[in-house]
């Protein structure tokens, strides 16, 4: 909105007339209501999914979009124009966007290693933030994000949308009611297909319009490689934390949602690149470096949780869906899945199986619509959201601790109150990492 128009809207002479005469509809064919100034930082596929729900809510005016990749930014702008008459300004640097546009809502859909600095800068600039999971790359970044949210009083919603998926909600009600009995073990998993040994992909010059230095940001600056951007960054440990950091946080979050315990007391993990082979990163080319196989064990006071993933051997031999959680109780086994809803299998053939189908939204079979509605409700009602930053911080920590145990090759004893590994100075040093200059690690 221009300064001239703002002055006109706020003038005592014609507020009512101007609101009716000048307001453009948020969505084609709908009337414009009071809308929040909204910005998207990170305009890839997932960021645009979230922005799509913001537009569909009819409560958001998209004033700005930001991406370090001009081709991605421009494609996103064209896609947005089919949904709204808003004409957001385009930026390559989030700092300039925050300073000039003063958004009330900021959606952060960047790669993982950028989430902390952008979220913290956004709340300090006065915005409420919807930030994607995992919230950060290291544990102490997450604590800094929680502190920034609390110090500013802003709503910070995290994209752990299964907390609002109808079948996940009813599944939690089933578990918490005790119908599955006393649960002694939970198994969370993601089993995806893949190929054999990975061959290095040649490095290239960054494409025109991509600010590769800014893309790497606080992380190490590797040579540009199309295996990293676009889309592949999650399997490069300089910028993300592999399958456990990506998919795993959703299922770690389901475990913590179910239990009254806030964190595990002991973590151990094994795995590696048994199929893909040794990681390569040299002047000529790169492979991914995340594990293709991982098993992590989390010991709580009253139960054991196990995570497992593999990136090979996709098949139909295993019953059910290839992602989810199995809760093993004295009354039977409860499978909390994604696209197949939930199913309870009674122990010893006692009674009938129980099942609920999912209620997922096109085009991505998720529940972003419901999560964004909760985000807006939290802003208006001045409350914390259902996927508050501190909840997601604890879920992210489980994934990061699993990765830390794998990296060190030993078990970790975790003090969740102090957020320290007990008696392990080397592990505690890895709860943060050195940022590449000029970026400064948040405190």
Q: Would you kindly provide a written description of the structure presented here, covering whatever features stand out?
A:
The chain is globular. It has a domain at 165-362 and 389-429: 2-Layer Sandwich (Dihydrodipicolinate Reductase, domain 2). The protein is of the alpha/beta class. Helix 6 (115-124) runs parallel beside helix 7 (139-152), helix 7 runs antiparallel to helix 13 (389-408) and helix 11 (248-258) packs across helix 13 (389-408). Helix content is 32%, strand content 20%. The chain is built from 14 helices and 18 strands. The strands form 3 sheets. Strands 16-15-14-13-7-12-11-9-17-18 form a 10-stranded mixed sheet. The two termini are 35 Å apart. Mean pLDDT is 92; it is low at 1-31.
CATH fold node name of the domain at 165-362 and 389-429: Dihydrodipicolinate Reductase, domain 2
| Low-confidence regions | 1-31
Class from helix and strand fractions: alpha/beta
Using only CA atoms, what is the Rg?
Answer: 23 Å
In quaternary terms, these chains amount to single chain
Strand order of the largest sheet: 16-15-14-13-7-12-11-9-17-18
Q: Would you report the number of β strands?
A: 18
On the 0 to 100 scale, the average pLDDT is: 92
Our count of helices gives 14
Q: What percentage of residues falls in helices of 4 or more residues?
A: 25-40%
Sheet of most strands: 10 strands, mixed
Distance between the termini: 35 Å
Query: What is the H level of CATH, i.e. the homologous superfamily of the domain at 165-362 and 389-429?
Result: Dihydrodipicolinate Reductase, domain 2
Query: Under the CATH scheme, which class of the domain at 165-362 and 389-429?
Result: Alpha Beta
CATH architecture of the domain at 165-362 and 389-429: 2-Layer Sandwich
DSSP strand content: 15-25%
Task: Please tell me what the overall shape is.
Answer: globular
């Amino acid at each position: 909105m221009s300064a001239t128009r703002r002055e006109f809207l706020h003038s005592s002479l014609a507020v009512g007339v101007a609101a009716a005469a000048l307001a453009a509809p948020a969505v084609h064919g709908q009337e414009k209501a009071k809308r929040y100034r909204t910005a998207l930082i990170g305009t890839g596929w997932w960021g645009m999914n979230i922005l799509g729900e913001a537009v569909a809510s009819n409560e958001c005016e998209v004033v700005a979009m930001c991406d370090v990749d001009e081709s991605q930014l421009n494609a996103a702008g064209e896609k947005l124009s089919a949904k709204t008459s808003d004409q957001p300004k385009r930026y390559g640097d989030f700092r300039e966007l925050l300073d000039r546009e003063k958004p009330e809502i900021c959606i952060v859909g960047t790669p993982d290693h950028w989430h902390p600095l952008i979220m913290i800068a956004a709340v300090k600039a006065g915005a409420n933030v919807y930030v994607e999971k995992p919230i950060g790359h290291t544990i102490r970044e997450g604590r800094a994000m929680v502190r920034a949210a609390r110090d500013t009083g802003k709503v910070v919603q995290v994209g752990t949308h299964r907390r609002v998926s109808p079948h996940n909600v009813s599944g939690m009600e089933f578990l918490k009611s005790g119908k599955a009995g006393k649960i002694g073990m939970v198994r969370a998993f993601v089993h995806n297909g893949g190929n054999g040994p990975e061959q290095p992909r040649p490095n290239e010059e960054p494409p025109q319009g991509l600010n590769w230095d800014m893309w790497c940001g606080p992380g190490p600056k590797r040579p540009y490689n199309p295996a990293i951007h676009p889309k592949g960054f999650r399997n490069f440990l300089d910028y993300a934390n592999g399958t456990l950091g990506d998919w795993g946080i959703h299922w770690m979050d389901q475990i913590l949602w179910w239990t009254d315990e806030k964190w595990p007391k002991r973590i151990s993990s094994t795995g590696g690149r048994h199929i893909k082979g040794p990681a390569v990163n040299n002047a000529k080319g790169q492979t991914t470096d995340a594990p293709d196989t991982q098993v992590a064990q989390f010991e709580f006071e009253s139960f054991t949780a196990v995570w497992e993933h593999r990136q090979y051997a996709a098949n139909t031999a295993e019953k059910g869906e290839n992602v989810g959680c199995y809760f093993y109780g004295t009354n039977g086994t409860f499978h909390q899945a994604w696209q197949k809803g939930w199913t309870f299998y009674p122990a010893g053939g006692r009674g009938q199986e129980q099942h609920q189908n999912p209620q997922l939204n096109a085009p991505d079979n998720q529940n972003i619509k419901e999560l964004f509605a909760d985000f807006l409700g939290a802003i208006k009602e001045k409350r914390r959201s259902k996927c508050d930053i501190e909840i997601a911080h604890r879920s992210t920590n489980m994934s990061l601790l699993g990765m830390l145990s794998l990296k060190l090759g030993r078990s970790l004893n975790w003090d969740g109150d102090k957020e320290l590994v007990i008696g392990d100075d080397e592990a505690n040093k890895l709860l943060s990492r050195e940022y590449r200059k000029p970026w400064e690690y948040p405190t």
